[in-house]
Each structure stands twice: as C-alpha cells, then as structure tokens.
C-alpha cells in the first residue's frame, strides 16, 4: 500500500498525452463557472505571512490564487481545491493524492495535516518551520485562513481535506465527483 501512490503517480505520468508537459493554465472564467456549476464557491485568496500573530502584524505576500470551496450540506465541513487542480484534465499530484491517499506516516509532531502534506512531498508552510505561521487568506470565506498543501507541480488541495481523506473521511464533498481528471480504474482501488 505504501508504494501504490507512487506507482499510480508514475503510471499517470506515463499515460498522459505525449508532449503535454506544460501545466494546466485554465481559463479562469470557465474554471470558475465549472466550480460554481458543481456546487462550489470561488474564493480569491492571498498568501499571508505571520498569521500566528495578530492580524495587524500579517504581511501580505505577492499574488493571489483562486480556490473552489465545497461545503457539505450534511455537516458543514469544507474542502478547498485550487481552480487549476479542479480544472485539469491531466494528472496532478494533488488529484492523485486525493484519489489514492497513502496512509499518514509515523513521526508527525504538531499539526497532523501539515505533516501529512510534507509526507506527500508538498508544503503548506510559509517561511519554513517557524512560529510566525502563514496561510492563504480569503476575505468573506468561512475559513478566512486556509492551509493549502502545494505540491511540486503547483497543484493544491487543502491540507486538512487531504489528511482526513487518508483516513477515509470526506470533508465538503467527495472531490472524485468533480475533479475533471479521471484516473484509470486501477488508480482508485
């Protein structure tokens, strides 16, 4: 089971269309419309450093990203996925980690979702491991601060959504019903 994630990842890369090495650059209008048509809400988020301190001390970093937030009508839980990850029709590391989540490894100290993200090869830390903290800020979102697990291919699903999924718990909605990339049947076992 430990190697199934990497086997699926390697297979997905080999099975992807030849010559398609550039990342998914979505038409943000179409990706946003898709998010909303599948029951999500588009949230513009900005990276903020120092979020463990008072908001007056936060440092806004350059750039913004659009995330699709899905909220469960049953329990109010939420999951957030980067629009590029949601819209991609080719494999992304975040989608593969969601479809075939490896179990949480041992040795996690502190935030289990952040540790799990690191075990997947991603990061949700701003400025390395320090006490300052950092998150993606979304004005008007129920989750003003989001720990987004950014993987090496720049795909992203929120860290808690990935960690819960590794234990079989679905937050928000089951992203397998809305991710445009559909893996080969063997990848979902």
- Secondary structure category: alpha+beta
- Helical segment count: 6
Number of strands: 8
The value of Rg in angstroms is: 16 Å
Give the SSE order as H and E letters.
HHEEEEHHHEEEEH
Query: What's the helical proportion of residues?
Result: 25-40%
Stretches with pLDDT under 50, minimum 5 residues: 1-24
Shape: globular
Give the biggest beta sheet.
6 strands, antiparallel
Question: How many distinct domains?
Answer: 1
Percent strand equals 15-25%
Give average pLDDT, whole number.
85
Structural commentary:
This protein has one domain (4-10, 25-182). The chain is built from 6 helices and 8 strands. It has helices spanning 4-15, 28-37, 83-87, 93-99, 112-119, 159-166, and strands at residues 41-49, 59-60, 65-71, 78-82, 134-137, 145-146, 148-150, 156-158. Strands 1, 2, 3, 4, 5 and 6 form a 6-stranded antiparallel beta sheet that branches.
What descriptive keywords fit this protein?
189 residues; alpha+beta; 6-stranded antiparallel sheet; 19% strand; disordered N terminus
Question: What is this structure, in a nutshell?
Answer:
This protein has 189 residues and is α+β, with helices and mostly antiparallel strands. 26% of the residues lie in helices and 19% in strands. The protein is globular and about 45 Å long.
Ordered list of secondary-structure elements with their pairings:
Blueprint: H1 4-15, H2 28-37, E1 41-49, E2 59-60, E3 65-71, E4 78-82, H3 83-87, H4 93-99, H5 112-119, E5 134-137, E6 145-146, E7 148-150, E8 156-158, H6 159-166
Antiparallel strand pairs: 1-2, 1-3, 1-5, 3-4, 5-6, 7-8
